[in-house]
């Protein structure tokens, strides 16, 4: 089943958010007792608040606080939320003091206890801010500051509920997992853009569009900077001698510093320059897979890459951990011929099935008399 | 005189069975529930159908973005309130369990006899003194709306419990709830 290429791809985060609010609306509304004041926007409201008229600065939207004094339930809600926020910050302060009281040494026990405290602190930081209507509005409108734990939590939660299952479904359906990677448990959202449009994983792309390398976005959720390796691989190149398929490397960049606040792939060492995808004529569609690996051994020093190496061998050699993956598909096009001519400079192979031998015809093509047909094996 | 069950019928049992099965006994239409010719006085099915198919759909009120935000905030605040309540209860229970555990450990050090009798527990079913016994009529003094539970501060001296009517033969004071301060345990509830 072919997936339709995204024609006007809306950024996945925004599109899915628009649906997130609706179920909430339908589920909770039945229990809510509707006050008249809540159904119609009062005339006084419009006059009192110039907030209904959203004054947008050019390009930048900002949250307008809802005025108090109109809906008593809302006033109480805000009061309670702010009170709870203060309580949570108090608790965070206590935890900070506890952390400071720990001695300087770092044996196993202390590391465990510190870990527990850090997790509790993160949870409290999220809980303090997650009910704030301003924060929720910001997240809904994609104004996200990844240095704050709330936004990291909200983004991760949203990714895990929407885009991630879709990605995993497509990866397993297209057998990317056993063919390219042995296993995939993503902790990072790897996305790519062609011509400034996000591409859904697994979609078909036109070869002209992919001549230039895609813009990669690595959305990780950890605060500290870690080094990552990016690869792009085509597992579906035909291998005639073995009557099977072989893997072809398209791109390799190592030592990319990535954190929650740094999401582009600048700062890495490009070991293999980007090779545009070129599915040869006669083969079925090719899956061009992108993989993001965390370098567990720190920096990788390599000058050249052995192109005959398998992905698994490469991963084992450098102790890489797969953190994120995605892929797109392509099929032969007339433009692929021009890619072979201009970009690659090699002879374009055209593949086809071997000719069928008809045992009932002789060499000239005439029907062989039956008494001369040997028993076929 | 003659036993009617002793004579042999002209038809054998098997043939009578076959005949009985071929003759389809159908209920008269007025007995089939739900049909249009059903018993008119039994309107249950009609009522059900009317409720299911003919009541107008309740339209959800249309909310603006601001309304929706208000609604969500209120909803979150309420859920947060309930969550905090639940957490308080859980922490209380956890603290009680911890103290119980510690007390048992201390008791173990004191000696085997007391410890073992504490672990066995009471096989005799006993009811708390303040438990509400089902009565035929409501209480004369009505519901105490101003009741406050006993504060957890141990230094504050608690009021004496109301006299046990079974033990003492004295009659109860005229208005024990209104005159005295709030009781240490809630007389309106079944105490756990």
TrEMBL record, chain A:
The keyword Coiled coil applies. Residues 85-120 form a coiled coil. InterPro entries: PEBP (IPR008914), PEBP-like_sf (IPR036610), PEBP_euk (IPR035810). The keyword Coiled coil applies. Pfam families: PBP. Keywords: Coiled coil. This is PEBP-like protein. It comes from Gigaspora margarita.
UniProtKB/TrEMBL annotation, chain B:
Residues 135-192 are annotated as: Disordered. GO terms for biological process: mitochondrial translation. Gene3D superfamilies: 6.10.250.3440. The keyword Cell division does not apply. Keywords: Coiled coil, Mitochondrion, Ribonucleoprotein, Ribosomal protein, Transit peptide. PANTHER family: 54S RIBOSOMAL PROTEIN L28, MITOCHONDRIAL, LARGE RIBOSOMAL SUBUNIT PROTEIN ML40. This is Large ribosomal subunit protein mL40. It comes from Gigaspora margarita.
